[in-house]
Write a structure and sequence with these properties.
Radius of gyration: 19 Å
Order of helices and strands: HHHH
Length: 90
């Protein structure tokens, strides 16, 4: 978890560097630099989501999802993005 925000921040940093260097084709240069990493991250995410080597991994993931919301409405998702997010202090 968390790879999405990590790669997004890396993308923003790299694009900022490209733009600071006044490249004529910033997005083409960005694609050249970042696409290999994006393909690797996508391949790894697909592996983790579809082909875990152990059945226990899938069971643990499913159990965590169920338990996260089973006993309370104070789930991580609700606290970050749902109605409870407005009550969270910065």
């Amino acid at each position: 978890m968390g790879e999405g925000i990590n790669s997004g921040m890396e993308d923003a940093f790299i694009l900022g560097e490209i733009l600071a260097n006044n490249r004529l084709t910033p997005f083409a240069h960005m694609n050249q630099l970042r696409l290999p990493d994006m393909h690797a991250i996508t391949k790894y995410a697909k592996y983790l989501n579809e082909e875990p080597p152990f059945l226990g991994e899938r069971v643990a993931r499913g159990l965590a999802m169920v338990l996260n919301g089973a006993f309370t409405s104070e789930t991580i998702s609700n606290m970050l993005f749902g109605p409870m997010g407005k009550e969270r202090r910065s």
